[in-house]
Amino acid sequence: MAFNFKYHQSIFKKYGLKAILFLLRSKLSKNKLVNRKITGAKYPIHLSNYSADVSTLFQIFYAKEYELSKSIDPYFIVDCGANIGLSAVYYANIYPNAKIIAIEPDKSNFYFLKKNTVNYSNVVCINKAIWSKEKNLKIIDIGTGNWSLQTVETNVIDDDSVSTITLTQILDEYAVDSIDILKIDIEGAEKELFSNNYEYWLYKTKIIAIELHENIDKEIPLIFFKAISNLTYSKYQSGENLICDFR
């Protein structure tokens, strides 16, 4: 990792010396699969795709891109696109009394998701893909590894396919009236999620933290804002995430 003075100066001003040291140690490390204790997590974190996971870990635990501007005492959190569990771990630490449903379709990511959340009794891991209806999906690697896998519908059921789950099913299965925090990072599948069968669960959601992957499909932001157009909300950008508060 080349030392960029202006970049690290800005990191120091915003997050302190520990953040810089963490980035430097992480980038210089030869170990690609590590067990690391970090500030903000009660138990050590296991990383898989090292270069990508370090960046994600920094965004969540140091840049705090999922930190909310208004206080909330959530009972039910749904993490769509949980990846290796960094966001689920973050939520589990700051909201220890909330039940967290972490959904991840990829088997390799899911292995690390379970590994990272095994000590958190309030986290439930589901190896499925979030979708607008019950289907089977195929996972596609677009060349960027396990941290940005995409899903497409398929009629083939095999070891490479994954079944879906809807947010309506989750509400019904856990017998809850609302989703307090809905985190969505599903690499373009937002288009499907907010195009069909979204009205029931959307009106029961208090806060959405979403990454709108406009780089994948320019229509995604338009579809998302059309879906929420009849609701009253405040919004702000937090790093890569758009936070919409419907309370």
Pick out its properties.
alpha/beta, 7-stranded mixed beta sheet, 13 strands
What does this structure look like?
By secondary structure, this protein is of the alpha/beta class. It has nine helices and 13 strands. Strands 5-4-3-10-11-13-12 form a seven-stranded mixed beta sheet, with helices on one face. The longest helix is centred in the N-terminal third of the chain and has 13 residues, at 50-62. The radius of gyration is 18 Å and the shape is globular. 36% of the residues are buried. The model has no long low-confidence stretch (mean pLDDT 86).
Helix count, DSSP H or I runs of 4 or more residues: 9
Radius of gyration, whole Å: 18 Å
* SSE string: HHEEHEHEHEEEEEHEHHEHEE
- Ends apart, CA distance between termini: 43 Å
Query: What is the structural class?
Result: alpha/beta
Task: Produce a short descriptive summary.
With 247 residues, the chain is of the alpha/beta class. It has helices at residues 5-15, 17-28, 50-62, 86-94, 107-117, 167-173, 190-193, 199-202, 220-227; strands at residues 35-36, 45-46, 76-80, 99-103, 123-126, 129-130, 136-140, 150-154, 161-165, 179-184, 205-210, 234-238, 241-245. The radius of gyration is 18 Å and the shape is globular.
Topology:
Blueprint: H1 5-15, H2 17-28, E1 35-36, E2 45-46, H3 50-62, E3 76-80, H4 86-94, E4 99-103, H5 107-117, E5 123-126, E6 129-130, E7 136-140, E8 150-154, E9 161-165, H6 167-173, E10 179-184, H7 190-193, H8 199-202, E11 205-210, H9 220-227, E12 234-238, E13 241-245
Helix pairs in contact: 1-2, 2-3
